[in-house]
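FORM 12-B: Structure-to-Sequence Request
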């Protein structure tokens, strides 16, 4: 064993450890400053969150009560806010997994394994890629496949920061 090489590695470990500790202290200082800023603005932020929540609910109710305004196009952007309706992702279920497995083997033959887990149960992720008529033939039911109301800012960088701050404020508000 080369002791010079081991000594060099030990020095490099010490250098890395020092740099890492310095970085950690800097991150802790940044986090502490951010907490001070949040505390300074928290009361105003809570008031703003309440006002925003109320206005969001009012807008959502107005959009919900006028679906005919959003047939084509289904969404619009007004004052930087996307409103309207969008198709929900939807989910799928089946009453009899064995029946779906048999139907997959009948429908896809040797390729059926792409839609099955090893223990021979239907794979929801793979099945979600199939069209509705194929899913029905397989005995799979489609749920929540309808439009949902959209009311959301067209996010920019500042909006993402604002949303994160709002989430933090709401979490902080909910803590005992």
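FORM 12-B RESPONSE
SEQUENCE OUT:
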């Amino acid at each position: 064993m080369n002791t010079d090489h081991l000594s060099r590695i030990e020095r490099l470990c010490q250098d890395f450890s020092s740099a890492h500790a310095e970085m950690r202290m800097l991150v802790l200082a940044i986090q502490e400053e951010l907490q001070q800023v949040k505390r300074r603005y928290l009361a105003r932020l809570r008031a703003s969150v309440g006002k925003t929540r109320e206005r969001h609910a009012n807008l959502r109710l107005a959009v919900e009560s006028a679906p005919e305004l959003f047939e084509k196009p289904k969404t619009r952007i007004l004052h930087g806010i996307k409103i309207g309706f969008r198709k929900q992702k939807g989910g799928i279920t089946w009453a009899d997994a064995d029946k779906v497995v048999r139907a997959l083997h009948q429908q896809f033959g040797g390729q059926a394994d792409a839609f099955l887990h090893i223990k021979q149960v239907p794979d929801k992720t793979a099945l979600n890629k199939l069209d509705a008529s194929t899913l029905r033939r397989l005995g799979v039911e489609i749920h929540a496949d309808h439009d949902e109301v959209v009311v959301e800012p067209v996010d920019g960088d500042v909006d993402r920061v604002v949303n994160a701050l709002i989430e933090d404020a709401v979490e902080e508000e909910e803590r005992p």
